[in-house]
Fold this protein.
Amino acid sequence: MAIYQERQLQEVSRQFQIYGQILHAETCKIGHINETYSATYNQGGTRVRYIHQKLNTGVFKDPASVMDNVMRVTTHVREKLEARGSSDITRRALIVVPTRNGHPYYQSSAGEIWRTFVFLEGVQSFESVQTPEQAFEAGRAFGDFQNLLVDLPAGSLTETIPDFHNTRKRFAAFQQAVAADRFDRVRQARGEISRAMAREGIVDIVLKEMAAGTIPTRITHNDTKFNNVMLDGETGEAMCVVDLDTVMPGSALYDFGDMVRTTTSPTLEDETDLTKVEMRMPMFRKLTEGYCSTAGEFLTQTERSLLPFAGKLITFELGLRFLTDFLSGDTYFRVHRPGHNLDRARTQFKLVESIEQQESEMQKFVDQL
Ligand code: GN1
Ligand code: MG
């Protein structure tokens, strides 16, 4: 980590209610949007770790509402777990550490927004699923998260990124990026552009059902990537889901769809060997079983029957978003090499094709559950 960051973190750490001396800090290479650090403190002679995170205010334009949502959700989850009599609650619900004057976040004189969480010890996250049990755990954990929030009135949370999963608007943004071609990149992405164009027909399906009220609006996580599930290092049990910045009103299908995208293929999101990218039925079955074990009670018949479709839709949506960002000069998702967003888009579209090939089998499985 660069020295200036370490010094900057010293300064940041003094703003929070942490009673100890920072020993060292490391960058956590996780996520495409925010900057995350883990820091070790000496607290009364014991080593204690915290997470410091700088919020990307280009993406999250209303940090106060983001943190208001996060506080409401973490408090609610903790109260529900207490009522259930759960064990080990400090590892099952995120704990926000307030600033010294009691705010959920700190704003530096330069306008940076920082927040701090208690580090969850003895858990780990993975970029890709290693076993079907992990897929089950991911499904169970996000289903339970939705379940815990089922009695939180939707109106109590702000929609911090409006139209986040509005696939029609995502498609329109993609079309605009193609038409504008500001970076002269359309010629590099012709294949991906035609794959996207060919699937326009799927973008309105969930939106129409939601508008008609046949799919309910619920409080959802909205970023249910597998690496947002913290698994116990010893037992493999999913303890906690993290990254709560996009918890807001949405559809349960968006959450399930992003789980299909990130748990069923053995590959990473930016795999360049497309022959390895595939939706694996055994993973899908376990994921669905895990999800229905906790979400089964509240899901409606329409939601349930659209679970396989949701996997295709959200994988397609992410393909569109990566491709749009590539065409627009890589301003949204952090990239680590030229063409990175195009690679990500290509991988998503390959996964969409794999889902399409197995969609009827996926549907058969869901219908008999
Ligand atoms: C972003 O930063 P990260 O990895 O938590 C994005 C998600 C995407 C994901 C793709 C606020 O999440 O929507 O699914 O990248 N978050 C936001 O990997 O746009
Ligand atoms: Mg995220």
Remarks:
- The domain at 132-368 is CATH 3.90.1200.10 (Aminoglycoside 3'-phosphotransferase; Chain: A, domain 2).
- The mean pLDDT is 96.
- The first strand starts at residue 21 and ends at 28.
- The chain has two domains: 16-119, 132-368.
